[in-house]
């Protein structure tokens, strides 16, 4: 197997290139290996097109040697730091949760459940959260067995691997003692979709205004008989009163 380090990308005329260190076995050109895990925990078969070591083409690499691998028919966006290349017969598993025995080298206050920090193990760099501890709290110098859960992606882990747990001034080291292959991905509620309005604010305004205008128009149409008769009767009364008042005013000077 080989761990993929930070250096990967696309080389003009070559394609997607990754770099890493061969941990065990032998890797040759045109070998078919499994690369992963991706965000869903899937390992995808890939073909090694060519191998370069110290800027020179080689046919194979052995355990302990670092080299670059050109891959066939794979895009750069499908690769992330922390992925591995493993044999087709290895049956790799993507791990969301693992248990580690750690010792706190330094922490300003106390560490408890739900504490999150960056986990470093091999080429893996990802934030993990503590979901269970063998003690209630940990301070500087304390030792405990903690169960971690990755936040974003599952990873390929092996029991016995060394790890570093850090966040700001916090430093902790330990060994992975157990992995949980049956652990499911953490639930993520998409709050943005719930808070997102169905229509934009402007459209909602226009819609409510149009509805209000239509409602007023329908009210006028529905109440044409009663409303119009009331208006006509009121106007006729006003006209009669104005006529009477005007005649009285006109008559008064004549009488004088």
Description:
The protein is an alpha+beta fold and 256 residues long. It has 3 helices and 15 strands. 22% of the residues are buried.
Features:
3 helices, alpha+beta, 6-stranded antiparallel beta barrel, 256 residues, elongated, 40% strand, 6-stranded antiparallel barrel
Shape: elongated
> Order of strands across the biggest sheet?
1-2-8-5-4-9
Q: Give the assembly state of these chains.
A: single chain
Unreliable parts: 204-209, 217-221, 223-236, 241-256
Q: How much strand content do the residues show?
A: 35-45%
Average pLDDT over all residues = 79
N to C succession of SSEs: EEEEEEEEEEEEEEEHHH
Number of helices: 3
In total, how many beta strands? 15
> What's the Cα radius of gyration?
38 Å
Secondary-structure-derived class = alpha+beta
Topology:
Layout: E1 2-11, E2 15-22, E3 26-28, E4 32-36, E5 44-53, E6 56-58, E7 60-62, E8 66-71, E9 84-86, E10 97-106, E11 116-121, E12 124-133, E13 143-150, E14 162-167, E15 170-180, H1 191-195, H2 201-222, H3 224-255
Antiparallel strand pairs: 1-2, 1-9, 2-8, 3-7, 4-5, 4-9, 5-6, 5-8, 10-13, 10-15, 11-12, 11-14, 12-13, 14-15
Write a brief structural summary.
The chain is 23% helix and 40% strand. The protein has 256 residues and is of the alpha+beta class. Residues 204-209, 217-221, 223-236 and 241-256 have low confidence and may be disordered.
